[in-house]
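This week, work through this protein record:
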Amino acid sequence: MRRTPCLTRLPLLLLLAALRTAAAEYFVSTYGRDTEAGSMEHPFATLRRAQEAARPGDTVWLRGGTYTLREEQIARRHKIWASVILLDRSGEPGRPIRYAAYGGERVIFDFSAVKPHGFRVSAVHTTGSWLHLEGFEITGVQVTLTGHTQSICVENAGSHNRFERLVMRDGMAIGYYSTRGANNLVIHCDAFHNDDPVSEGGRGGNVDGFGCHPARGGTNNVFRGCRAWFNSDDGYDCINAHEPVVFEACWAFWNGFSHDFVKRADGNGFKAGGYGSTPAARLPRPIPRHAVLRCLAYGNKAAGFYANHHPGGCEWIGNAACRNAKDFSMLGRLSDNRTDVPGYGHLLASNTTCTGRMNLVNIATNRCALSENRFGETWPRLDERLLTAPRAPGGSLPALPPPFAR
């Protein structure tokens, strides 16, 4: 009996389909060359070249060492922005493109030599979606403009992205920053020692550890298990957000100070809400309710947990605050976005603070839901070295004693 041509070709077609969907691995190394094949033995030199090769489901392994970036490596100059490493190729649902440190090796991207005249620097800029960035450090990101400006260590404009165990440190830039994109997870990341001495008189403004300000539709952006300390402005900031942002089991400490405790800019731990001077007609409808869950704010220059003139309420559940200038400040604003009032519409449940004069301020308690909070308790002294201790191998936060532990 003759086989039909269709049946004869079927195994070959299945084999070709399997080859197309098989995940590949590429390697990048400080001793690599972009003319090589990208294998472990013959690695690429740059993420740009690795991205050209990578397809959905592939992994780009980063070998240990310090990668010193130069101005001629800027991938794109657009308007006022210079994007140095631009990740604009997307993965697919269930098949992300992964960029990760190999085998626990320490990978550092040093941007201290990248000083493009007249541009803001976006060191690692992701515009693609379904990406996973894991286990490397960004340091030395510069500010060169003297007016109102900002630079960014990791900027995300994609969706369904995962940023895991990244360290953004010792520069002049915001750690992580996003104004668009949905369903992104920032997990087990650290942002510290970031301070801008150049712009606007060198006061250190606009240098937050983590900033998330999603446009309409940018839902389900979550920060989990992150730390922010010694950032010259705020630890976490979601001013001008048009969708809710979630902060879960994150720490903010010593923000608003330099590393030697000189006072710098705002210095709030978690700034959840507010719209600045935005006209009332341009406020989102409805006003989003951000959620701050099981977080720790310690020793920040201003408020540990701050509603920032939010014209509505947020969820504050299971948090701990100690030694901040104010622990919980729920300052609100009427719907005209001009008139400051005690905060309203908030849910505060199972929060706790240590002894202090400013445990809970700027709140209309009769217009909020409060339950099982314990403010002004006597706490044991914390060994502050634990706050900056190394993470566990899987990325989880160091263990703290109660009541600091969340």
Notes: The longest strand covers residues 81-87.
